[in-house]
Amino acid sequence: MSRAFAALGSAAQTAEIASGDDDAVARAATAVGGVSVRGLTKYFVAPDGARHAVIDRLSFDVPPGQFVCVLGASGSGKTTLLRLLGGLASPDAGRVDFAAPSSRGFVFQQDALLPWRSVLDNVAFGLAMRGVARAERRRRALALLDTVGLGGLHDQLPNRLSGGMRQRVNLARALAVEPTVLLMDEPFSALDVRTRSRLQGELRDIWRARRSTVIFVTHQIDEALQLGQRVMVLGAGGAGILADLAVPASEAARAALATRIHALIDGASQPVAAASAVDGHVQSPEHQR
After folding, report:
1. CB-side exposure of 125: number of CA atoms within 13 Å?
2. What does the alpha-carbon distance between residue 90 and residue 216 come to, in Å, rounded to a whole number?
3. Does pTM top 0.85 for this prediction?
4. N or C: which end of the chain has fewer CB within 10 A?
5. Is the pLDDT of residue 181 over 60?
6. Cα Rg of the chain, angstroms
7. Residue 37 has what pLDDT?
8. Which positions fall inside the ABC transporter domain (predicted)?
């Protein structure tokens, strides 16, 4: 049960949630624009016909506007979870509830830009699919390109851009539809260290300005602790959430937490207690968390 949703709901909702009613939690999540996941399960079928759980009865809440990073070893289902949240795969059981109306934006490791379209037209593509008038989508796309530092390159084709620039276009395209939830799957992992650090800073600035909900998958612990307000660590083989933690403000505390998460992912530690992360209220002026 998420204390955040209890705090944000009406008195009647709070009473239902306090009683442990999962339906009430989901209703509270959608009432305030968050994400509610209940009993989410996904199997893959081996060549011998055996079913193996990648995600097994996973339940959690994300309050609106929270930046959540998802960590885990290979095989823990990080990308599968993101695909389920984004509707790109269907669960075998369970459900995901979003606010209504809601929209989701996607940023993947591979940018998947349309090579025959200009940077501007790539950013405006989702708007065109939604029937937005040409002049309006051009205005919005140009504004977003300015936001990500590519305002002077709107007429270029993607093959003229560096990897970091392409990911900036990819991010601008996702933001163009004004998503309530932004889903990001290791978007900076293929970039060099300097470019990755710069884009991480830009992403934080954009999130602070827009306060969309962000669910960000990464295998880099330092990236998760640098970006997120909250970190969820998934266990391999459908083991579920091993840790669900608020990210501390101080660098020393984050370094200590990184060591604990390393040990947890490596299987050398017991799951870390997760009392403080679910409500997402972390006081951190230096990170504006």
Report:
1. 18
2. 20
3. no
4. N
5. yes
6. 19
7. 94
8. 35-261
Give the distance between the most distant pair of CA atoms in the chain. Answer: 57
Cα angle 185, 187, 188; round to 5: 140
Q: Is the pLDDT of residue 163 over 50?
A: yes
Residues in the chain: 289
Measured CA to CA, the distance from residue 50 to residue 52 in angstroms comes to 7
| 18-49 pLDDT, tens digit each | 334 445 544 545 444 589 999 999 998 888 87
Task: Report the side by side order of strands in the sheet with 93-98.
Answer: 51-62, 35-45, 93-98
Token duo for residue 101: 């109306």
Which 3-state string (H, E, C) describes the chain? CCHHHHHHCCHHHHHHHHCCCHHHHHHHHHHHCCEEEEEEEEEEECCCCCEEEEEEEEEEEECCCCEEEEEECCCCCHHHHHHHHCCCCCCCEEEEEECCCCCEEEEECCCCCCCCCCHHHHHCHHHHHCCCCHHHHHHHHHHHHHHCCCHHHCCCCHHHCCHHHHHHHHHHHHHHCCCCEEEEECCCCCCCHHHHHHHHHHHHHHHHHHCCEEEEECCCHHHHHHHCCEEEEEEHHHCEEEEEEECCCCHHHHHHHHHHHHHHHCCCCCCCCCCCCCCCCCCCCCCCC
Q: How far apart are CA 187 and CA 166, in angstroms?
A: 11
161 contacts 191 by C-beta, under 8 angstroms: no
Displacement of CA 146 from its chain's centroid (Å) = 23
Q: What integer pLDDT is reported at residue 73 of this predicted model?
A: 85
| Of 203, 219, 218, 289, nearest in space to 247 by CA | 289
Highest mean pLDDT among 49-63, 104-118, 142-156, 215-229: 215-229
Residue 136 Cα distances to 141, 145, 146, angstroms: 8, 14, 16
